[in-house]
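Chapter summary example.
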Amino acid sequence: MKNGSETMETEEDLLTLLHIKLYHPQQSCKGLYSLLPLGTRSRHSADDPLRLGRDAQACTYCLADPRVSRKQLALSAYRTPQSPEILFSVQNLSQRGRLSVNGSSLGHLEKMDLPDKALIRFGEYEVLIVREPGEAKASFEVDLEVLPVSPSRETCSSEPGRAPVMDTAWLGKTGPQETDETLICYS
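The structure predicted for these 187 residues follows.
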């Protein structure tokens, strides 16, 4: 146990980890994630928000997609007086697009606290964020990965007004057969 006079973080402190898992239906053929540091953990200061968007100058993580806003969303770390853990909120930075968190819609500049597991949607993107708590108070780690299947399909969750993703099948002489959506690319 540390005494109250020690405020410096040591390398031994267990960092909070944000797993950010991305999915887009055309991800296999569009190079959308070419600018992201996939598969490597990166450490971030808790007092700087993480921004996701297409503007590499303004955003921590950049998507190579002209349909994404320059600044799409921000993830901000915070703590409460009741808990030493780092928690996170999400804010919609897009003026033209809506963002939803677990089915709740956020307009421009609106923000919401994130639960330990949250599904964020904007455009055709689905972003599953899972928080693993740690002890460190001044920094946290981020691990980015690409999901092969839509997280809403995996968890069987859909939101009102948005049709769930369905498997497609071809009816032929041999009967129904599933297709692999990862091979279907639309221009």
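To summarize the output: DSSP finds two helices and 14 strands in the chain.
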